[in-house]
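Tutorial sheet, problem 5. The two components below are modelled jointly, 722 residues in total.
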Amino acid sequence: MDLGALVACFASPACVVTQASSGLIVGLLLFLVAAGLTLIFGVLKIVNFAHGTFYMLGAYIAYSVLQATNSYGLAVLAAAAAMAVFGVAFERFLIARVYGGNVLMQLLICYAVVLIFDDLVKLVWGADFHAMGMPEAFQRAPIFIAGGVVPPFYAGLIVLSLCLAALLGLGLGFTRMGKIITAAAQNPQMVAALGINTTALFALVFGLGGGLAGLAGALAAPVRSLSPGMGFSILIESFIITVIGGMGSIAGALLTAIGYGLLRGFGTIGFPLFTDELIYAAMILVLLLRPSGLFGREIV
Amino acid sequence: MTKHDVKNNDKTKPGLGRRAVLATGVTGALAIPFLARGAGNVLRIGVPTVLSGPIALLGTSSRNALLLEADRINAASGLAGRKIELVFEDGKAQPQETARVARELVNTGGCELLIDATPSSGAFAVQEVVRDLGVLCIHTCSETSSLTADPKLRAPTAFRCARQGVHDSIAGGAYLAQFANAHKFNKWATCSPDYAYGRDTTAQFLDFFRHFKPDIELVTQAWPKLGQPDFTEVITKLIQARPQALFTLLYAGDLSAFINQGNVYALFKAMTVCTPNVDYPVLSAIKNIPDGIQSGTRYFEEFPPLPANKAWSEAYRKRFGQYPTNWAWQNAAAMMFLEAAAKKAGTSDGKTLVGVLSGLTIDCPFGTNGKITMREDHTIIDYAIGWGRTIAKPPYIADIKPADWGQIIELETAWKKQLGYI
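Model answer (structure tokens):
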């Protein structure tokens, strides 16, 4: 532990800006994945263990589209759209068959999908890692704010992720579709009794969740190595976010993801050897004291 | 009919009873390895490796090199007259899984020899399996020195045909001390993966670096996890510490991600990065490779500058469509050692080969002078080690300076004495 370094960092605006922005980018990319996960659980009560696969496929699709078109914008859109479609297909053809069934069956289906698509990625793109490289538009010198370093690409990602979080929050809270989704999360039978097509609604939610994960994969691809199985580590982190934030709570996922990122950003300076352990300890504490998560609804 | 009825009816039925089925099954299970071993004139060599995740490059390039060499040996007369069949298993870079597949390859897979193409995290687990089973094993990817240097860890039938952390540390320390003196770089940082190889080899590097340049100041150290997808907080921590130079042991996909993420923060303008771990595929995969990384050669077709080395690289590229890696040459050399030992002993029997391999010198395109020796402590020496600087286009590394093996062995011996290994 190096608390002296941590105190010195907090006393330096440059260090605060650099570490806070790096924490924000880590947290907000995680939020995009966790938001889909928590949304799917909130409405469908499905713990989607295959969610990391959406992230991985999003990254690979973006990689291929960028190579083919040389347009990063198109690559991101294609990845998000493809994963949204994949999400709908996944829900319709697989998950819909085990609604209300044994949880183990849901787990087995998700695990099978993870294994199958990890191997498919190996077949299509190979087992070796790939690096997308930074799109030309973002190959720029970092911005300096109060002496702290903020890369333009990361600044763009932070703004985009925050906009998406706001859109998601506003969309769920103030649009008719959002209100239906929120209502379905609380009482799907009542929503169906009102004549709303819950089958299409569930597929839509899965599509939205999948699209967000695919988007996160595409946004992370320029700076992360692409490899089969890359969805696994992000899945673990996303679960931590959803468990602490409260399964089903978008606001909980956002605030926890930002907190998680900041803890990593400053933890690496103050307590580099047990940053991860601290995060797991926080999760255990929340599970013990508030099993529904910080922002989750109490289960009566 | 109820379940109970079925049970009772089964009991009274003639034919194979439960005990007979059990006995047949157990006998069959016990017989499988022996049947497999006796199957024809084929020599099965088990290869636990890593074929998934960010360091899959380690496994795929090891596999490529082994296939290349096995085909060459088989096209001649095989290993002491027996055709080689390689059996690859993915240990997924997990020690428990690696140990499990290594044990299965021998116990039920009919493999008589092992080539352990796993990183140190798996190699130490395989070492204990080898100690238990007494099978001949050549580790081809673990660079953690203690695996063979520490007599308590060394296994009588296990060898290492891979570069060693202590050798790279001495060579790197000597080269970088000269570089640091020339540029007046005294403030250094390190960033290495958080497991045996990263921790041990970084400590060794610092020891030898200080031996050559006592006035360095270590301003910070970072220990990201192996396979960590995001290095952002590590990179910003390094930038905050303001070192003049950074020594890193990250490799494969991790090194690629680190360089890509470091580029975003202009890390390479803030400090000079030094690493012994740059490989061809990493260099070619990174789209914006910065100039001037001080780099070890790992594998380089121009170094050692031998026609056999260039020819081997070309054969590899022709077949697999990519450049070889450091792991590729190490696995190829392991096969060359087995080939030479089997030729000398006139047999492919593992126990006999153990005695022959120890102290064996072979002609090898990856040796400094065209030869590599498997020393009595079961590890290789005289393989090519050089340092140079990266350039953005092929051949990617320029101005290579070869390491002095006399100096390496002298300091390695002193290091072993200091740790009580000899």
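Marking note: The radius of gyration of chain B is 24 Å. Full credit if you identified this.
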